[in-house]
Design brief:
The protein is α+β, with helices and mostly antiparallel strands and 454 residues long. Helices cover 53% and strands 10% of the residues. A hairpin with a 5-residue loop joins strand 4 and strand 5. The longest helix has 25 residues.
Length: 454
């Protein structure tokens, strides 16, 4: 899970409890601090109160305990003994923070939910849940739809609470505004992520831009903003490349390990549209200095591919080049291609198990850029009737045929074919040594492209 402890620490700084040495009578400052965390909309709202010195001492002992395991025990004991405490939700927040520190996200989530059950406006719990959601969400989760709805409600409630929040008298104006922006950025980013999953790209762009305005240094906000532009129909490569380049520059500056993966993704998208990576490093340098692209910024589309003399490459380029450019021409091209039969040759990129038992996905490189690029391939062959497909290894030459089923244009164009391998398949997988030394000669047979029933 990719999380930022430093961010969460800064967001929770206002929730620090008073030390026991301050005395019970000095604990009154917690009222405005908790009102800030809870988003109390009016100064006349009833402030939380300690009911006894014993309750205060128990809370303070819990909050100041350095050993996380002991802190968990103290928090659970506080909740059990002082179930009617005005600070019960704060005890759950301490549990939430501690479990997050112990890298137990499920327990942290549970504690946050219990804190919200006590106080639905607890900003610490709402902020934590909104911050971690994009990192723990799984699109293939059977309950993904309901989880997206819950996350959206959490973030929207957080924004509503923030809007009603009043500055405590003892908090400097600039610090208060900075904390508001930090939390608001988290909530808008979460809403953007939810709408991105729902393929509401226009909505996600609006939310991500709001998040980026409040926090122009967040790697993931800019990366997701770039994705929203990339997956829009038609793709907006100008904004997509800029914002993903911004994410790469921020990740590199912060030595964020996610930067390598984001950079590889960016290169695939850029080369898919531009034709090569010329000029990309300059864009990353520019994006490091500006959150938004300058007026008139453009990523030039690739020129129409020239004939190479390789029938497989030339046939694939002829079919797919219009799809890469998007717009009306891409749609007309796809309308003509979908459902047609295709026979081509290429080299194995990878083989994975399919979704159905006994089925496999064969990913195939045809273009030279795909052979050289990490994680890039041109064709995904859905195969369910050839068990020996699993014995293929990267670099094996093959021919295949099937029906054109679908395609994705971003970050690189991949054509999905439902069909089969028509060259002889190995009876068993080669040893690792043999796999490394296998020849990678190109196929020379001509491509066959004929029409069939849809």
């Amino acid at each position: 899970m990719l999380t930022s402890l430093s961010l969460m620490v800064s967001l929770w700084a206002w929730a620090a409890p008073p030390r026991a040495s301050q005395g019970l009578r000095k604990a009154a400052w917690l009222a405005p601090a908790r009102a800030w965390n809870a988003g109390s909309p009016a100064p006349q709202a009833k402030a939380p109160q300690w009911k006894s010195r014993e309750e205060y001492d128990a809370f303070n002992a819990m909050a100041t305990e350095k050993d996380p395991n002991k802190r968990v025990s103290l928090a659970e004991a506080f909740i059990q003994k002082f179930g009617a405490s005005d600070f019960k939700d704060s005890a759950y927040v301490v549990l939430m923070q501690t479990y997050q520190q112990m890298n137990q996200p499920e327990k942290a989530d549970d504690a946050a939910r219990k804190g919200l059950a006590v106080n639905p406006d607890n900003l610490d719990a709402l902020t934590y849940l909104s911050f971690v959601f994009p990192f723990v969400f799984k699109a293939d989760d059977p309950s993904a739809t309901s989880k997206l709805s819950v996350a959206e409600n959490d973030a929207k409630r957080g924004l509503d609470v923030l809007q009603k929040t009043q500055k405590p008298a003892n908090v400097p104006e600039d610090q208060f505004n900075q904390a508001i922006k930090a939390r608001r950025s988290v909530f808008n980013d979460a809403i953007g992520f939810v709408t991105l999953q729902r393929k509401d790209y226009a909505g996600s762009i609006t939310s991500f831009k709001a998040a980026a305005e409040d926090n122009p240094s967040d790697v993931y906000t800019f990366y997701r903003l770039g994705l929203a532009y990339l997956y829009s129909s038609p793709s907006d490569y100008d904004h997509a490349i800029w914002y993903i380049a911004r994410a790469v520059s921020l990740a590199n500056a912060a030595k964020n390990p996610a930067g390598t993966e984001i950079e590889n993704f960016m290169k695939r998208a850029y080369v898919n549209y531009h034709g090569n990576d010329t000029g990309l490093s300059d864009i990353v340098t520019q994006a490091a200095a500006s959150a938004n692209p300058p007026e008139g910024f453009k990523v030039a589309p690739m020129e129409t591919p020239k004939k190479t003399g390789d029938p497989n490459i030339d046939a694939f380029n002829d079919m797919t080049f219009p799809l890469k450019l998007g717009g009306e021409k891409a749609q007309k091209t796809w309308d003509a291609l979908k459902g047609q039969a295709l026979e081509l040759g290429g080299a194995v990129d990878s083989v994975e198990k399919g979704t159905e038992p006994g089925s496999y996905l064969v990913r195939i490189d045809i273009l030279e850029a795909s052979k050289a690029g990490e994680g890039a391939y041109d064709v995904e062959l859905k195969d369910s009737a050839q068990p020996n497909v699993k014995n293929l290894v990267k670099g094996d030459l093959l021919r295949f045929k099937g029906t054109i089923d679908s395609y994705t244009a971003s970050p690189s164009l991949v054509l999905t074919i439902v069909g089969e391998v028509i060259t002889d398949l190995p009876e068993k997988a080669p040893t690792k040594e043999k796999a490394k030394t296998k020849a990678k000669a190109k196929t020379t047979k001509k491509a066959v492209h004929r029409k069939t029933t849809r």
